[in-house]
Write a structure and sequence with these properties.
Blueprint (H helix, E strand, L loop, with lengths): L1 H28 L8 H13 L3 H20 L5 H16 L9 H21 L7 H11 L5 H20 L1 H23 L4 E7 L3 H11 L5 E6 L6 E10 L3 H11 L4 E7 L8
Antiparallel strand pairs: 1-3, 1-4, 2-3
Helix pairs in contact: 1-4, 1-5, 2-3, 2-7, 3-4, 3-6, 5-8, 6-7, 7-8, 9-10
Amino acid sequence: MKKLYLLIKDYVLIVVGTFLTALAFNFFLIPHKIAPGGLSGIGTVLYYLFGIPVGVTMLLLNVPIFIMAVKKLGKDFGFKTLLATVLLSAFIDLVKVPSLTHDSILASIYGGVLMGVGLGLVFQGNATTGGTDLFAKIVHKFYPLVGVGWILFVVDFLVVLTAAIVFGPNQALYALVSLYLSARVIDVVLEGLDSAKAFIIVSDHADEISHRIMTEIDRGVTFLEGRGAYTMQRKNVILCVVNRAQVVRLKAIVNEVDPLAFVLVTDVREVMGEGF
């Protein structure tokens, strides 16, 4: 019963999150030619150049990315991500609303904040909206030395640069404002203001928990040798660092395997190494 509740909760968060993200684009970003990186930014540029609906562009560009993701990352990367991607594209094209402001500065601020809230809820639902996130994971699979964050930065930078050429430098600067605000709000929605969290997990089921972490969220795990001071029993202590989109899922894994596990979660100010 608990698993069914959590599953329903995830899908509700995905639907609400994608809807709010679509409103951010339709209320603020698209009417003001603000292209905040990613496939949505590409869609905004193509919409004003050729009249192609933003959602259609996003969906068409996601198709080859999903095919590559299935081949390189396996089928476990998520039906929820596929659902979130389709819903976001559909909501952007089908939900017709007027722009709420004529001021591009206000549009970039409110659009970035609302987009951050929406994407944060999608992450809370253990999904992503596909696009450049999946593309970055695929590239990282081929070139492990290149971090996912750097790949996303390069893609977003190129999209914003293209927007600057097409719409002018002012709109590109507004896009950067939206990008920054959305990233910060996503952090707040999920786990505060830090981009990464370190988990120290003490459990009698360390092997099962570590296996699920490595297979389900693709994060490395380190075993630390521990011993209970009272029982003198030796056991493995799990050390794992995850990004903001994986915090909720890791907590769920620990709770599902061992509800009695002792879990310490701490903020990480800086992470260097594979995947960061």
